[in-house]
Write a structure and sequence with these properties.
The complex is a heterodimer of chains A (328) and B (205). Chain A is mainly alpha-helical and 328 residues long. Chain A has a domain of 30 residues. Chain A is built from 13 helices and two strands. In chain A, a hairpin with a 4-residue loop joins strand 1 and strand 2. In chain B, 20% of the residues are buried. Chain B has six helices and two strands, in the order H-H-H-H-E-E-H-H. In chain B, strand 1 and strand 2 form a beta hairpin. The chains are: A mainly alpha (328), B mainly alpha (205). At the A-B interface, helix 13 of A face helix 1, helix 2 and helix 5 of B.
Chain lengths: 328, 205
C-alpha cells in the first residue's frame, strides 16, 4: 500500500513543471492575471508559436515546390498558453533570441548563438535586488550541478525560461509549492531519458534510494528535495547550492527537533510570524506536523510538574515508611 | 496463594518490556535535539524500535483482553457500584495514614479479590481506557495517510499526537506508581517475587 501511494504521488510529481499542468498552478496573484494578459508582442511572437507552439509544423519547401509537414524537436516546443502564464510573458521572443530568427529557414549559424542565463538580465538590477540573484549565482557555482556546465547544464535545466513561474510560499499553497519544486528535480532525476542527457551515471531508483526514510510517501509530499539536498543560505529565498549525495541531510533530528532546519528553509517565508499557542515551530502546524519539532511548551511544563510531584509524594511515602519501621 | 497463572505472567513481562522500550524511544523521538542526540536513542533507531515495540504491545494487548474473556481473570477488573467511592477512600486512607499506624489492610488479597479498589480503578483506566486510546492514536501516527486531515480547523495529526503523548505520559506515571506500590507488600520484594513465581505471599503468612 505504501509503495502504491508513493507511486501515485510520483505520477503527479513527475509531470513536467513546464507542462502547465493545473496541479502546479500556484496561487500567485501575479500569475492569475495571465488569464487576461495580452502581450504587446503577440503578433510578433505568433510568428514563432506558429511552428514552435506545436509538436508538428508545416512550411513551404521551395526547392521541392510543396507543403511539408515535420515533427518539432521536443526541446524546441514552447506552448503559447504556458509562455503567457510565465514570469517572462511580457517579452518578445527576439528580446532573448536573435532577431535573425524571423527569417525561415533559420540560418545554421544561429545554432551557435550564446543563450542568456538568469544573471545576464537579473544581475545588478535594483528591481530584482530582493531575490539576490548574484548570491544565487555564487551558490550555484559551488553546487554539484555547476560541475556539469561543460555537459550543458544551465539555469534553464531547472527553470525553463519559457514557462517558469515564481512560486510564492504561503500556508494556502504550500503543498502545491512542494509538488512544483520537487517536480523540477524529478523532471531529470526520475526520468532516465532526460537524466542521461547530462550524466553518464547509471539510473537512480529514487524510491529505493530513499527507502530508509520512515513514512517515505509522507516525506515526499510534505517537504522538498532541496530541504535535505542543499546547503541552507539565509540570504536567498531558496537555497541553490546542491550538495553531493554524501553530504545530504540524513540525521532525522536536523528536522525533527526544536531547532528544525525546516524553519530556515521550507517555512522560512513566515518563520518570523508568531503563534501564541505554545507550540515550538508552530508555523509548521498551519500546513503540516513534524514529530519532535512541534512539541508544546505548556504540555512540557505540566508534565514535568506532574512527574516531579509524583516523585516527591513517593519520596515522602518512603521516608514515612522508613521512620515507621525504625519505630517498630 | 497461586494468583498469577503462566499466561498472565508471560503477558505481564512482555507488556512491561515493550512499555519500557516505548517510553525510552518515545521520549527520544519527542525530545531529541541536535545538541543532546548522544544522550538518547537516535531518531531513526527510535522510530524503528518504537514501531516494533508498538506492534508487539498491540498483539500482547489482544492476547490480554482475549485471555480475560476466556478465563476467570476478567472478573478481577469488574468494578461494582456498591460502596465504590467509600472503598476507594478507605484504601487511599490506608496508603496515606493507616499503614503507618500499623492498621490491617482494608482489602487483603484473596483468590476472589486480587486487587484492592484503588488498584482495580487504576488498572481498568490503564488497560481499558488509556491503552486503547494509545494504540488507536499510535496507529494514526504510524499511518498518517489514514488520519483525518483536520478536525474543527485543527490538524488531525497534531490532535492525534497530543492524545498519544498524553496517554503515553499518563501510563508512564501509572508505571512509576505501579512499581512503587509493588514495594508495599509484606516485604518490599514479595510482590515482585509473586509476579515471577505466580504465588502471592500475604501479610499474615
Amino acid at each position: 500500500m505504501f509503495r502504491l501511494s508513493i507511486l501515485l504521488i510520483f505520477i503527479n510529481l513527475i509531470s513536467s513543471p513546464s507542462s502547465g499542468n493545473s496541479l502546479f498552478e500556484t496561487e500567485n496573484l501575479k500569475v492569475q492575471d495571465s488569464v487576461t494578459f495580452v502581450s504587446r508582442f503577440e503578433a510578433d511572437n505568433n510568428r514563432c508559436f506558429k511552428c514552435h507552439g506545436h509538436e508538428k509544423y508545416e512550411y513551404t519547401n521551395e526547392t521541392l515546390g510543396k507543403q511539408v509537414k515535420d515533427i518539432m524537436c521536443s526541446e524546441r516546443i514552447v506552448r503559447k498558453v504556458d509562455f503567457y502564464a510565465s514570469n517572462h510573458k511580457s517579452f518578445s521572443c527576439t528580446d532573448c533570441h536573435s532577431d535573425k530568427y524571423v527569417n525561415f529557414p533559420h540560418s545554421g549559424e544561429l545554432r551557435m548563438e550564446q543563450k542568456y542565463i538568469c544573471i545576464d538580465c537579473h544581475g545588478g538590477d535594483e528591481k530584482f535586488a530582493k531575490y539576490h540573484f548574484e548570491e544565487i549565482d555564487s551558490e550555484y557555482r559551488k553546487s554539484t550541478h555547476f560541475k556539469m556546465e561543460d555537459e550543458g547544464f544551465t539555469c534553464w535545466k531547472c527553470h525553463n525560461p519559457h514557462t517558469y513561474k515564481i512560486s510564492v510560499r504561503n500556508n494556502i499553497n504550500l503543498k502545491q509549492t512542494i509538488a512544483y519544486d520537487n517536480a523540477i528535480c524529478l523532471n531529470c532525476h526520475s526520468d532516465y531519458n532526460r537524466f542521461q542527457l547530462l550524466s553518464d551515471k547509471a539510473e537512480i531508483d529514487i524510491i529505493q534510494k530513499h527507502e530508509w526514510l520512515p513514512n517515505q510517501a509522507s516525506h515526499f509530499a510534505n517537504v522538498r528535495c532541496i530541504e535535505c539536498h542543499t546547503k541552507i543560505n539565509n540570504n536567498i529565498p531558496v537555497s541553490h547550492q546542491i550538495r553531493p549525495k554524501g553530504e545530504a541531510v540524513r540525521l532525522c533530528n536536523e528536522c525533527h527537533s526544536k531547532n528544525s532546519i525546516l524553519m530556515a528553509s521550507l517555512y522560512k517565508f513566515e518563520s518570523k510570524e508568531q503563534r501564541r499557542d505554545g507550540f515550538f515551530n508552530g508555523i509548521i502546524l498551519n500546513a503540516s506536523y513534524v514529530i519532535g519539532a512541534n512539541r508544546n511548551e505548556y504540555l512540557n511544563f505540566i508534565s514535568l510538574i506532574i512527574f516531579f510531584a509524583v516523585i516527591v509524594v513517593i519520596i515522602v511515602h518512603i521516608v514515612y515508611r522508613v521512620r515507621n519501621n525504625t519505630k517498630h | 496463594m497461586y494468583l498469577y497463572p503462566k499466561w498472565i505472567r508471560a503477558w505481564h513481562v512482555l507488556n512491561a518490556a515493550m512499555f519500557l522500550i516505548l517510553i525510552v524511544t518515545g521520549l527520544s523521538m519527542q525530545y531529541t535535539d541536535k545538541e543532546n542526540a548522544s544522550y538518547v536513542v537516535g531518531f531513526a533507531k527510535a522510530v524503528r524500535w518504537h514501531n516494533f515495540a508498538a506492534i508487539i504491545l498491540i498483539l500482547s494487548y489482544i492476547f490480554f483482553v482475549t485471555g480475560n474473556m476466556l478465563t476467570n481473570n476478567g472478573r478481577y477488573y469488574r468494578i461494582g457500584r456498591k460502596d465504590f467511592l467509600l472503598n476507594l477512600t478507605k484504601q487511599f486512607k490506608f496508603y496515606s495514614r493507616g499503614m503507618f499506624r500499623g492498621e490491617k489492610h482494608p482489602f487483603p488479597v484473596t483468590e476472589e479479590r486480587k486487587f484492592n479498589p484503588l488498584q482495580k480503578l487504576t488498572y481498568v483506566l490503564a488497560m481499558y481506557v488509556a491503552i486503547p486510546l494509545l494504540i488507536i492514536s499510535g496507529i494514526g501516527l504510524l499511518l498518517p495517510e489514514i488520519t483525518i486531515t483536520t478536525f474543527f480547523g485543527i490538524s488531525g495529526l497534531i490532535l492525534t499526537d497530543i492524545l498519544h503523548i498524553t496517554m503515553g505520559f499518563c501510563l508512564s506515571i501509572f508505571m512509576i506508581i505501579h512499581i512503587y506500590t509493588c514495594t508495599l507488600g509484606s516485604k518490599p520484594t514479595s510482590l515482585f517475587r509473586g509476579i515471577i513465581t505466580g504465588y502471592h505471599v500475604s501479610e499474615d503468612e
